[in-house]
Design a protein that fits this description.
D-Maltodextrin-Binding Protein, domain 2; Alpha-Beta Plaits; 6-stranded mixed beta sheet; about 30% strand; alpha/beta; 3 domains; binds zinc ion; 5-stranded mixed beta sheet; binds phosphoribosyl ATP; about 30% helix; 8 helices
């Protein structure tokens, strides 16, 4: 029987859609019928297991799945000795301590002797220990944000993205502990065959993620400014330069990092570039 790499994905939740999209962008076809527990891809030796995100690290550790996609928060909290093979960048959030608006907060020391509700006791305990703060940690699996208002806790430690949940519960964020994004985790002892499939998958994944960071730009430029363009726009790695019918002009094509793009555009305008076309890149490999 053909060896397949088993990947654990969140069945339904904040990670599901993006995880599936990423894999689809890698040219892997499957139905993604989230009502099933598992399914095989049609054109790549991979099999999907759809699970609750909390279960993914232990399943990967036990070898039920070979790799998985989870929030870094979940991986760090459960602390299994797994390999993080890629940071996927999506599902960004921060784990923060929040207290009622009315509470005066002057640093972690204000939490001495207090009760803190969280779903992340391991990560929180580590933080408190580093700061030499003694607090009682209550492990709660959901709706942590309501615990102060019902008198169960004095503070909470929970994931925050927009902050709206905290505001609507009369809480203020006082101590961001760390930032989390979705990561791809792997069982530490994959055999050569599975490692080989994982490497093939990572090659595709890198091409997809890298492409998302860059823009492809094309423009016409007075030839006299060619040197300036090359030196001004640091992101340009040997642009392709094509002569035009008008010999005072050239056509330039290059790739620019998204973060430098707007800067680059302004500078190109200053250098009298014309007909600037910008397109996104679908895949990009070195
Ligand atoms: O059913 P299952 O167990 O699989 O899902 P789940 O409900 O445990 O997880 P889910 O889908 O809510 O989150 C999965 C992962 O998404 C988390 O482990 C994080 O890595 C990541 N993520 C990103 C978030 C958030 N953003 C987020 N905002 N996870 C949870 N939240 C919650 C937070 O707990 C709080 O209740 O959203 C609320 C705060 O959001 P804002 O926008 O109001 O600040
Ligand atoms: Zn969960």
């Amino acid at each position: 029987m053909e060896t397949r790499l088993k990947i654990a994905l969140q069945k339904s939740g904040r990670l599901s859609e993006k995880s599936l999209e990423l894999i689809r962008d890698c040219g892997i076809h499957f139905s993604s019928n989230s009502r099933v527990l598992k399914e095989a891809a049609e054109n790549f030796p991979i099999e999907f297991l759809y699970l609750r995100d909390d279960d993914i690290p232990s399943y990967v550790y036990d070898g039920v799945a070979d790799i998985g996609i989870v929030g870094r928060n979940e991986h760090d909290e459960q602390n299994f000795p797994l390999e993080i093979v890629r940071d996927l960048g999506f599902a960004k959030c921060r784990l923060s301590i929040a207290v009622p608006n009315s509470m005066e907060y002057e640093g972690l020391k204000s939490l001495d002797g207090k009760r803190i509700a969280t779903s992340y006791p391991t990560i929180l305990q580590k933080k408190l220990k580093e700061a030499n703060v003694q607090a009682r940690i209550y492990e709660i699996s959901g709706s942590v944000e309501i615990t102060p208002s019902i008198g169960v806790a004095d503070a909470i430690c929970d994931l925050v993205s927009t902050g709206a949940t905290l505001v609507s519960n009369g809480l203020k964020e006082v101590e961001p502990i760390y930032t989390s994004t979705a990561v791809m985790i792997a069982h530490p002892g994959l055999d050569d065959l599975k490692r080989g499939i994982l490497d093939r998958l990572l090659l595709r994944l890198d091409a997809v993620m890298k492409a998302a960071d860059y823009k492809y730009i094309m423009f016409n430029l007075p030839k006299e400014h060619l040197d300036e363009v090359a030196s001004i726009i640091g992101g340009m790695k040997s642009p392709t330069v094509t002569p035009l019918l008008d010999e005072n002009w050239v056509s330039v094509q290059t790739v620019v990092h998204e973060q430098r793009f707007w800067d680059a555009l302004e500078k190109l305008k200053e250098l009298k570039a014309m007909g600037i076309l910008v397109t996104s890149i679908e895949k990009m490999a070195d």
